Amino acid sequence: MSKVYILMADGLEEIEGLTVVDLLRRARIDIKMVSITDTLKVVTSHKIEIRADILLKDIIDEKEEDFADMIVLPGGMTGTNNLKASADVDAFIRKYNAAGKYLAAVCAAPTVYGEKGLLEGRKATCYPGLEDGLLGAVKMKDNVVVDGQFITSRGFGTSIDFGLKMIELLISPEKAGEIGTQIVYYDQNR
């Protein structure tokens, strides 16, 4: 079974985070909501409290054989800025990058990877108007862009496409289609 960590910072855009959690859990992917603070409580950009599953500090030193298959960064400007400000998040992302694991981000959050120099020469997308943060990337306007280990998406409105792309990559296109049909995102009768 695939394992995914979604890093949650105060100020995250809840739809971008929880849509991914919902879709991946429907696909039976083990996704853990990871608080980057010292508490499991995360407060979203719209003041909704979410209880994370685990703390980043409890997995920061895991061995490579225990790594998840993917890290996901939800957006929201405050949440993205909190991700950028965390030395632990920086170290965690760099370890996963070096291990060749999938690194996904939506909305403002792809700029976390861009500003760390990880998108150099890669195709990527983000929330319109934040492209300057995709340092070195080939900037795209697609809803979801996959280039090697990086998966980026534009925002709230592309969150379902983003989550289904992860299912496609971690399991199969057929499973992504099955989940898309179950949630009436795809109409199987068309």
Give a brief outline of the structure.
With 190 residues, this protein is of the alpha/beta class.
Structure, explained:
By secondary structure, the protein is α/β, with parallel strands linked by helices. It is built from 6 helices and 11 strands. The chain has helices spanning 14-26, 77-85, 87-98, 110-115, 159-170, 173-182, and strands at residues 3-8, 30-35, 41-43, 49-51, 54-55, 70-73, 102-106, 123-124, 138-139, 144-147, 150-153. The strands form 3 sheets. Strands 5-2-1-6-7-11-10 form a 7-stranded mixed beta sheet, with helices on both faces. It has a two-stranded antiparallel sheet with strand order 3-4. Strands 8-9 form a two-stranded parallel ribbon. It starts with a strand and ends in an 8-residue tail after the last helix. The mean pLDDT is 97.
Secondary structure elements and pairings:
Blueprint: E1 3-8, H1 14-26, E2 30-35, E3 41-43, E4 49-51, E5 54-55, E6 70-73, H2 77-85, H3 87-98, E7 102-106, H4 110-115, E8 123-124, E9 138-139, E10 144-147, E11 150-153, H5 159-170, H6 173-182
Parallel strand pairs: 1-2, 1-6, 2-5, 6-7, 7-11, 8-9
Antiparallel strand pairs: 3-4, 10-11
Helix pairs in contact: 1-5, 5-6
